[in-house]
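Board notes, transcribed. Complex of a protein with 6-O-phosphono-alpha-D-fructofuranose.
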Amino acid sequence: MRLDDYLTNRCDDGRISLTEATVMRKLAASAISISRLIRVSGIEADLAAETGGANSDGDDQKALDVLAEEMIIDHLKHTATAYVLSEEQDAPIALSSGEGSETTASQNDQIMVAIDPLDGSSNIAVNVTVGTIFSIMPCDNGPIPCRGRDQLAAGFFTYGPQTTLILAFAKDAAPQCFVLDEGDEHFVAMGDPVRIPDHSNEYAINAAYAEHWFLPVKSWMAEVLAGKDGAYGKDFRMRWVGSMVADAWRIFRRGGTFLYPGDNRKGYEHGRLRLVYEANPISFLTEKAGGQAVNGSERILDLLPKDLHQRTPLVFGSAAEVDHLIAHHRDE
Ligand code: P6P
């Protein structure tokens, strides 16, 4: 089934609003444009070049980061999107209040979209999968991000060997995966709704920071590295792409656990990832898929955002392995 029909069906049975369907269609259209742009960026190297600026993360901003954001905003302009909250901007971007909107959205049907326009963009120059993460939220009282549990929808696109999308709406029982067809025109559903297995033998963490981890993560890792002779009774393998959307896509397709914990490096006490436009969308999808997503001891989706760019430690994936980490936090 094509994404367009998938959205029409959900509109027809009242599970999503016309606004949500329209915004999703526009996000998909922007992703197709970004996918094409990335593929030629290797040819036009200046696209992957740095702009000399930095984003809120302090990351060097790439020309593609800025272009991706511009493409998304241009696509969302004529929808009932009141604000875009972007990793690349210090403050929310107000879009025209639905003027010329393609939907007859009343003021109270307006929504806002939080985006990481190009997650993992430092990998573009070396041809590693990157992606766009999005969170669709209600906009009842201005550009104030809601708790992750109150998102209307969330998902991410990956730009790699395939261009893919994983998406869930609030009333969905599980996320659905899609892949862009060979003509680069339509996202087509991939099999059944997603379920993350409770148990897995694959974890993703940047082990280069091991000496900086806090005790609960060190204890969890010691158990994992003990393999079948340890508490888990099985051996594990490690993956770390350096692009969260790539690690996340693998976890949604075959299970596993992803950890970007806080550590004692300066500025990393709360990890590296952002709550509003990285952790919340990923955690929304994770719980819809039967997995767990925590900051170590608390459910990510319960955290109240206090700042658009606030960081949070993030552990998500197979429920049993995340449970073990929670137990270590409780024990410590
Ligand atoms: P490190 C990319 O910049 C990112 O935000 C995530 O996509 C990725 O998982 C992480 O940072 C990589 O961080 O510290 O391993 O370079």
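The radius of gyration is 19 Å. The longest strand covers residues 111-119.
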